[in-house]
Amino acid sequence: MRPTFLALVAAVIAAAGCGREPTDPSRTDFAGVWQSFDRDLYIYNIRMVIIEPQPGIVVGQWTADGRTDNLCTPGIPCRDSSIIHGRNEVSQVVLGLLGAGTLWASDRKAICSRESFARKTRTFT
Questions:
Q1: Residue range 10-46, pLDDT digits in tens
Q2: Alpha carbon of 65 to those of 21, 29, 47, 104: distances in Å?
């Protein structure tokens, strides 16, 4: 066999064995209405409306009961809200909730399990 043929075969096998990069955009659409019934310091009943304008880019808005700065007048209900920006990657989902911190999950099975965040009728972490 010729060395160039062996090199070509090795290159084809190597290329076929390559998977997607962990930071590539995910093929799973993360858009939807999500809700958490947990409390995060001073806010609770966190609701998120998320869209993916292009694969891997996540934007939207979050609202919650309470305020992240805890400046609610006692006895009077109040709410807080801001924007969401983040990434939906092969290896993880990262959501920046402006004013409320960052939420991320690196286990796709955990995202699809019944834990703390609900999307429509399913619950996600």
A1: 555 555 556 678 889 988 888 999 888 888 889 999 9
A2: 38, 27, 9, 21
- Give buried/exposed letters for 24-56 (b at 16+ CB in 10 A, else e): ebbeeebebebbbeeeeebbeebbbebebeeeb
CA dihedral (122, 88, 17, 12) in degrees, to 10, reads 130
- How much is the pTM? 0.70
Residues 102 and 117 sit within 8 Å (Cβ to Cβ)? no
DSSP state of 104: E
* Length in residues, the chain: 125
Q: How far is the C-alpha of 50 from the C-alpha of 85, rounded, in Å?
A: 9
